[in-house]
């Protein structure tokens, strides 16, 4: 922490002398402590992959939803405060529904992500409410191609070929930077993702501990079944 | 308390430098001091069980309601600030009523719990009102199966097979982790719950000191009668 | 006062690190300094009894109203800030009137008390207004039986067989715990109440210094006349 | 001032740890510094009496209004901040007018005083505006009898036989406690009041330095003429 | 400054422990530094008189308006913050216009002054806006007689025979107390005012440095012409 | 800075103990650092003159507008925060347009300036927004004559024969006080203004570094062309 | 940092004693850390040029949009907080659309820029929201000519012949001041811009690392293709 930082870091509507918004940066810390969440593109689409190990064996297996569908061809995974995430997912879904209602077509992935990010930005500029402590990975396929967007608490968005949010990010990004290639097959990409996730969480993966979503050209966004996941893990 | 914590822990809309929301954490402390409240699944449904010992012998026996029905097939028990709990229970009931009015069907348990949790999340993000100092156990049976949800002041929710909120949680969870099994009979589950509750409050149980609710496939949520409770205690 | 308490005790919407709401606790202190106010059940109803000694002999005797009727079969006595009490009494009366208007029947005592307590709870959760510095004893008879409720500044409510709020509470409760019995006759209960009140205020009672209200099955809530009170005191 | 008092005494919506509202108490200090204002009952009515000595001989004699009529049979005198008093007097008058308009009858004195006190109480519970720094003596005659009410900045009200607000209160109350009697004639009561007022302000009274209002059964509230006052003073 | 004063003197809605409103007192300081402004009654009316010496010889002579007409028979002069004064003058004029519109008659001087003072009082009780840093002298003639009112930032008002606001007040009041007489002729009163003003500002008067307004029974409020002023000064 | 000043200088709605409004005074500092802006009357009209030297040679010459027309016969120049100035200019223009729309005539210069100053005053009395950090010189010709007004951040306004705002004020006013004369010809006044401006900014003037506006009886407000300015400078 | 600066630098609506608005200055720091963004005019139009090097090789090449079209003949590039920029770009586009709708013509570049700057200014004067941490370069061609505007967080705007915002500004401006000439050909201007950009970011340029937009008389605003950019870079 730099000297004097505490004088500027509690107000949402306050810049520090060097032009930083500390509350936004602190919200990012909530993301850095979050679930490891991976996104990566393959030849025909985009994969999302989330660590969903249970915090206690008394938790209902299968009850934890970590990957959400936003629209027919758009899926989303999050990292950070779970209740904040639910609010943003709802916002995204309503956004997609409104577009469908008004224009009778699916919303483009980028437009949807921008709308959600504008919603987030508001919470970094106006007092009365803190920023959202959550980052999103959004995977979508539309007329403009295949997309994997990462958003952060500031409302910024970046399109990635492969990325990761949450506590495992440093490990996963390191592996992706060395091993990710454009145009991989679904299986190759999924294996790379599972390898990175397993390394990051330093644990053995199983259908119970990882959730996978995929969207592909011409196919709607869907979650993989346990048997599909087990098969993929078997191949790693 | 970590150094400097006090600089960030009084504002609802303020993240600490490591991305925590202290007011939400402090609201959880109100829950940790609350009544020991247990939920556990059995073969055909879900049991809720609450410590309702009287604070004084002048209190009207039978007057204390600790288990609430939200909808025909959904019941709820709480731990934490009692007046806050009443507000959330009302919110949940209105939610269920609105759904019935609009769609002419019972609301799904998970949807109801999410709606209540969205309501809670609001109080963690906007200034003007503190978070709710209360956690809920919600038991429900619907077309999707049997459900036992635990919610906390942040607006997070987790589905459990068996869980406990309030001051007795550490003791109860320890017992459940060792002894709970899926698919127990109603009697086996109730006995396990009573054993755990008795151990946690370190007191002899009686129909006057414990309240039990149950929801079962095809049967509406109901509170057990004193004689039913006495019979169950007798079997422990 | 615990160390650091002052850092958390001025904001209404602020939890302390151990999950307490100090402003609510301080509002309770206003009640602890209030008029000694007693409620106790007897065989067929509920008695309310209030210390109404005059602060100066220039005060108009008989002008001080300490017991209020809320509805035909519901009465109320208060302890704490007198202007706050008046506001809550008005709220309760309007509540009862609205119910009568909408449903053409008397409101149930418990529903009325819950509504007033929800009103109180609001002032413990939202900024802009302090909690009410007043507790209420509500006595009512309805289809569900005879009721004696005590509410506090947090919005919590408890049903008692016999209770006391205000400065004399420790003394009175001590006597009640030893001597109160269920199913006492009106005279026995009234004598017990007068004895406890006299002991608590350490003064000789007279029709001028105590106000008594009673509600009984089949009879509306009413205040006793001076001669009735004098007669009862004579019997103690 | 008790230790730590300053930590709690600037917020309107803040209780001190012992349940006090300091801003209300400080507003009472403004009253204690105010004009000496007396009220006392006599056989058939109520007298109000106010010190209206001029602060400078350049002030227009006769211009200072210290006694106000609220309704036909209700008069009022105040002590404390004069601009605050004017606002409350207006509020009281509008209250009486509204009642007349809605019910075609004069408002009862007690109802009027309660309404004004509810208005005052609001300013002790909600932020955004300070309490009124003014106390009122209200004298009225109605179907329920003759009334002399004293209100304070908290919104509390007490019915007196004889009372005093403002800087002279200790001296006047001392005299009243020794010499006031129920059922005095108008002249006896007026003489007692003038004697007390003269003693309190330690000055010779004249028609120019004292204002007197009176309300009597069957006669509307009115201010005494200078010659009436002079005659009364002559008799003291 | 009394010890601890700074703890209470920045909030508008905050009483000090001795019942003072420091922000109102500080606003009065702005008046005490203001232009010397005089009002005095004569046999048939009221005179207002203001020091209007230019702050620089580059200021446009004749451009400075220090005396305002509010209604046909009501004039006003101010001392304190000039922009605040303009706002209050506008408020007063609109008030007079509204009255004329509604009742088709001129507003009484006292009613107008009370309305403006109620407007001022608001700014001493509610947060969000500071009190007006300005005092007004209002001169009027109506069916009730001739009036000279002085108002201050608290919203208090006093009727004077002769008075002064602004920096010269101590000197002027001293002269008035010794030399002012009721029923003086216009010339005598004007000469007394000019003498007092000249003494207070310790400067030679001229038509360029003093502005004079007058309202007289049966004659509308008007400003004296330069030649009239010169003639009057010549007689002093 | 006087001792204790910092205790009062951050709140807009806060008077200091000696009745000053520090935030308004600080806003004046922004003006004192502003562009040197001159206004002076001549026989038939008013001249405005502004230093418009470029901050960098990459700035588009001719792009910087420093003199604005508000209405056909009213022009304006400003000094202080440029974005604040733009907002006030817009406000002034809308004001003039509204007047034209409602009354089908040009607004009088003084009325326009008062309206803008009332707008400014608001920002010195209410919280939520800081005062405008800008002063205006307004030049106008109307039925009442020729006008040159100076306004400041408090909302005060003064009519000048010749004046200056911004960093060069002390130097310019010194020259004007010695050399300005009423009824100068346009050329004489313009030369005096240019001399003063050149001295104040201590730089050689050119058509590129000074902007000049003029309004004359019977001629609309207009900016001088570069050749006119060059010619005038040649004559100095 | 000057002594005492911290006392004034956290409030948006607070001037410092020397008339500065620190929060606006701090917002400018966010711009100074931003992407190097260049604008320069050539004979027939204006070029915008932005550094768009990827922060990671996993970022989708071609996904980062750094230059935006606002209207047919107006383009824009930004530096500073990216989410803030998106909000302002949207505001600008809506502004242009509204103009087209109302007047059936393209908005003039300067009017558009002023509107956006008025929007920005608001956030420097009112509390509740921080200033925008972003600067814009706006390039446009309209009936009034070719324009290159730079705006900053205060809402100020300056027309430049060539300019730069973001971290590379000092280096780029130094080169432009020495080498920029009016009336350069498109190729000469583009080469100068690329040279300056390359020097500022101290990196080799490629079509992947620089984005270029251009608007020319008679030709709509457009982004150069990768091959056009590659060709231009080849010529440097």
From TrEMBL, chains A, B, C, D, E, F, G:
Keywords: Cytoplasm, Hydrolase, Proteasome. It holds the Pfam family Proteasome_A_N. GO terms for molecular function: threonine-type endopeptidase activity. One of its GO terms (cellular component) is cytoplasm. Residues 8-30 form the Proteasome alpha-type subunits domain. It comes from the Archaea. The formation of the proteasomal ATPase PAN-20S proteasome complex, via the docking of the C-termini of PAN into the intersubunit pockets in the alpha-rings, triggers opening of the gate for substrate entry. Interconversion between the open-gate and close-gate conformations leads to a dynamic regulation of the 20S proteasome proteolysis activity. Its main location: cytoplasm. The keyword Hydrolase applies. The 20S proteasome core is composed of 14 alpha and 14 beta subunits that assemble into four stacked heptameric rings, resulting in a barrel-shaped structure. The two inner rings, each composed of seven catalytic beta subunits, are sandwiched by two outer rings, each composed of seven alpha subunits. The catalytic chamber with the active sites is on the inside of the barrel. Has a gated structure, the ends of the cylinder being occluded by the N-termini of the alpha-subunits. Is capped at one or both ends by the proteasome regulatory ATPase, PAN. NCBIfam families: arc_protsome_A, PRK03996.1. Component of the proteasome core, a large protease complex with broad specificity involved in protein degradation. Belongs to the peptidase T1A family. This is Proteasome subunit alpha. It comes from Candidatus Methanoplasma termitum.
């Amino acid at each position: 922490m730099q000297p004097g930082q505490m004088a500027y870091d509690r107000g949402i509507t306050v810049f520090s002398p060097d032009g930083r918004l500390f509350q936004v940066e602190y919200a990012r810390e909530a993301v850095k402590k979050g679930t490891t969440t991976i996104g990566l593109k393959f030849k025909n689409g985009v994969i999302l992959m989330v660590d969903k190990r249970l915090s206690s064996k008394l938790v209902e297996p299968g009850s934890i939803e970590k990957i959400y569908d936003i629209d027919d061809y758009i899926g989303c995974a999050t990292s950070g405060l779970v209740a904040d995430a639910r609010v943003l997912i709802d916002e995204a879904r309503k956004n997609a529904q409104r577009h469908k209602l008004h224009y009778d077509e699916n919303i483009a992935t980028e437009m949807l992500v921008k709308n959600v990010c504008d919603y987030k930005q508001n919470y970094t500029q106006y007092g009365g409410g803190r920023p959202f402590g959550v980052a999103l990975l959004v995977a979508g396929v539309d007329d403009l191609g295949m997309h994997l967007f990462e958003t952060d608490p500031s409302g910024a968005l970046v399109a990635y070929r492969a990325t990761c949010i949450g506590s495992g990010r440093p490990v996963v990004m390191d592996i992706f930077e060395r091993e990710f290639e454009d145009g991989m097959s679904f299986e190759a990409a999924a294996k790379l993702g599972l390898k990175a996730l397993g390394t990051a969480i330093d644990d053995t993966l199983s259908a119970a501990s990882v959730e996978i979503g995929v969207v592909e050209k011409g196919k709607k966004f869907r979650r993989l079944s346990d048997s599909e996941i087990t098969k993929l893990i078997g191949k790693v």
